[in-house]
Amino acid sequence: MSEMEQTTEHEEDGVERRDFLFIAAGGFGAVAAGAAVWPLVDQMNPSADVLALSSVEVDLAPIAVGQSIKVNWRGKPVFIRRRAAEEIAEAREVIVAELPDAQTDVERVKEGKDEWLVVVGVCTHLGCIPIDYSGDYYGWYCPCHGSHYDTSGRIRRGPAPTNLEVPEYTFLSDSRIKIG
Q: Has 10 been annotated as catalytic?
């Protein structure tokens, strides 16, 4: 082999090695960038405890008439109240036009399940947790700023602009509901 042929052969080997090194370095760089960015993207996902509660099933059988329970759903308290006939009648006698957030009691419960009221237990004023069976209307009372809710979870007096939220829920049976 002549000297010129040997030089060309070595140059071709050098080009192939250089190309390989460029590709390998680019690949490692891409993997390193992905590894650095992944934690930033992953931290934006909802936490596991919130995801686990995207829907929750509740057994209503142990709840007596006139009793209320609190369950957690999506990191928020949800009040489930089994209302007595008197509470339902009182909630239905209210003149809806006089309410700050006009909504009938029938709109806030499932048809045929009038005794069950399900509301998110967060005051619509500043997000406090109201106290059950208290206030001027024997519904919920937020002592932080003085909002009074009736037995249908409707705002009756105080700074709260809207009624307690009714979450999406369905009856799986007469004694079991699924919230969310």
A: no
